[in-house]
Design goal:
Helix content is 36%, strand content 16%. The protein is α/β, with parallel strands linked by helices. α4 runs parallel beside α5.
């Protein structure tokens, strides 16, 4: 398992769990939970979290230094391609030319479902502008392939609605995306507990991104630890290859050959 790395935009990561930094009680809890998760990539909502754009205010960078974590600026709260592009250009300035970003363009404030035409437009602009784009998208195999063809470095289909905790509602679409992708596929949104993360990995996802599932738990630090183990267990199960499912055919666990008559 030491050589089983997650490769995104040419860089290798040991952890396949990516975590958000919002909704925690304070920055101290944020740091404790992320340390427990073992995550190396952490997402930052540029429009909601101070990483230097508000001088004199506490900065997330004091708690999660870029020297230790790969920061993934995201466009949470953006509803147009133009707004998303503007937000990530600001992030690049604040983070000294940092080019790995997470794009999400939302369709409405109630469901937070992605607006795919706006997402495709923003992705095309950002890729041409030199960004390495990881992109939140619908669990639509055609749209995911188009984002890959545009040049996105990872596609991130939702498992269910952001913050819903409903788990993976359509595993068949995820498998279609995974089977046809030449870039990493990471489940983004909808994970509620450790078993959801394990299922995503067993399906063959390259990783899982989550925020509310950890930050919204009664004990975020303990849940972060559980998610770390779930992602690792799901990945190992996928690599091991599960036994085939059999209808109506019993197979004893112990060998029957050589039984004493």
């Amino acid at each position: 398992m030491q050589n089983d790395k997650l490769i995104i935009a040419g860089k290798a990561y040991s952890s396949r769990l990516l975590v958000g930094t919002g909704k925690y009680r304070d920055f101290d809890e944020t740091r404790a939970a992320i340390e427990a998760s073992g995550a190396e990539i952490v997402t930052v909502a540029i429009r909601r979290t101070n990483i230097g754009q508000e001088p004199g205010q506490p900065s997330l960078l004091d708690y999660l230094p870029p020297s230790k974590y790969t920061l993934l600026p995201n466009t949470a709260g953006c509803y147009t391609a133009e707004d998303a592009v503007r937000t990530l250009r600001l992030a690049r300035e604040l983070l000294d030319g940092h080019d790995l970003v997470k794009l999400e363009v939302l369709g409405d404030a109630q469901t937070l479902f992605p607006d795919m035409p706006q997402t495709l437009a923003a992705a095309e602009t950002l890729v041409k502008d030199g960004f390495k784009v990881m992109v939140y998208c619908a669990d639509d195999p055609i749209q995911a392939k188009r984002l890959e063809e545009i040049g996105c470095v990872a596609v991130m289909p939702l498992a269910s609605l952001i913050g819903s905790g409903m788990g993976i509602l359509n595993p068949w679409n995820l498998r279609l995306i995974i089977d046809n992708a030449k870039v990493p596929v990471l489940v983004d949104a909808g994970v509620g507990t450790a078993s959801d993360a394990a299922i995503a990995m067993e399906l063959g996802c390259d990783g899982v991104l989550m925020n509310t599932a950890i930050a919204g738990a009664q004990d975020p630090v303990l849940m972060a630890s559980a998610m770390k183990k779930a992602v690792e267990a799901g990945r190992e199960a996928y690599l091991a290859g599960r036994m085939p499912k059999k209808l109506y055919t019993a197979s004893p666990s112990s060998p029957t050959g050589g039984m004493i008559a």
